[in-house]
Specification:
The longest helix is centred in the middle third of the chain and has 25 residues, at 93-117. The protein starts with a helix and ends with a strand. Helix 3 packs across helix 4 (133-140). The chain is globular. It contains 6 helices and 7 strands. A 5-stranded mixed β-sheet has the order 4-3-2-5-6. It has a two-stranded antiparallel sheet with strand order 1-7. A hairpin with a 2-residue loop joins strand 3 (67-74) and strand 4 (77-85). The chain has helices at residues 3-9, 18-33, 93-117, 133-140, 152-163, 188-197; strands at residues 37-39, 49-56, 67-74, 77-85, 127-130, 168-171, 200-202. The protein is α/β, with parallel strands linked by helices. The protein has one domain (34-202): Ribonuclease H-like superfamily/Ribonuclease H (Nucleotidyltransferase, domain 5), CATH 3.30.420. InterPro entries: DNA/RNA_pol_sf (IPR043502).
Length: 206
């Protein structure tokens, strides 16, 4: 629940300002006000690996770089999540979303290897959800156009995983995109709603 704000604050560790200090104090107050909030891991959850990937196009006002975010569930339990600023400036929202998909695909591949090492077999196909139709089309389009050639490395990586059948890349409505929580600041009502969807509970108010 603090992944996005810590990602933002970590960029200014070498030269923080009063604004950054005030924001950090708000984070500490939030943590102090909810000491019992955490993740719930159900032992009767189905062994299906689900992932959500999203990007906030040109969200950084200083560099205009996009922020990638992903989260992965094993059944109903959140097991992996991350928010990270992209290394390059994306010229379109489709490019930002596709780079985020490539970023999430690497994590998904690692999770697959980890589950194999732990002798955990997923009983259902692995699914990665993306809410950008253009990014989905790029993933399945075998032809590179002029506007997608600069994405070739990311395209080959994601496309290879799709062709190998490691996971399925499926569309999802923006309102159901859980990775949105990791790419931008949210108002209190939306923030609390996403916390509930991520299956975070407070043991003192359960």
């Amino acid at each position: 629940d603090i992944a996005f704000v810590t990602q933002q604050l970590s960029q200014f560790l070498s030269s923080p300002t009063q604004t950054h200090f005030d924001t950090a104090c708000r984070v500490v107050r939030y943590l102090k006000g909810s000491p019992g909030r955490g993740l719930l891991f159900r032992r009767d959850a189905t062994l299906q690996l689900l992932g959500f990937t999203d990007a906030d196009w040109a969200g950084c006002l200083d560099t205009r770089r996009s922020t990638s975010g992903y989260c992965f569930f094993l059944g109903s339990s959140l097991i992996s999540w991350r928010a990270k600023k992209q290394h390059t400036v994306s010229r379109s929202s489709s490019e930002a979303e596709y780079r985020a998909s490539s970023f999430a695909s690497c994590e998904l591949q690692w999770l697959v290897y980890l589950l194999v090492d732990l002798n955990v077999k997923c009983i259902k196909p692995l699914v990665l959800y993306c809410d950008n139709q253009s990014a989905l089309h790029i993933a399945v389009n075998p032809v590179f156009h002029e506007r997608t050639k600069h994405l070739e490395i990311d395209c080959h990586f994601v496309r290879d995983k799709l062709q190998q059948g490691i996971f399925k890349l499926l569309p999802i409505h923006t309102s159901c995109q859980l990775a949105d929580f990791f790419t931008k600041p949210l108002p209190p009502k939306s923030f609390l709603s996403f916390i509930s969807k991520l299956n975070m509970l407070d043991i003192y108010h359960a």
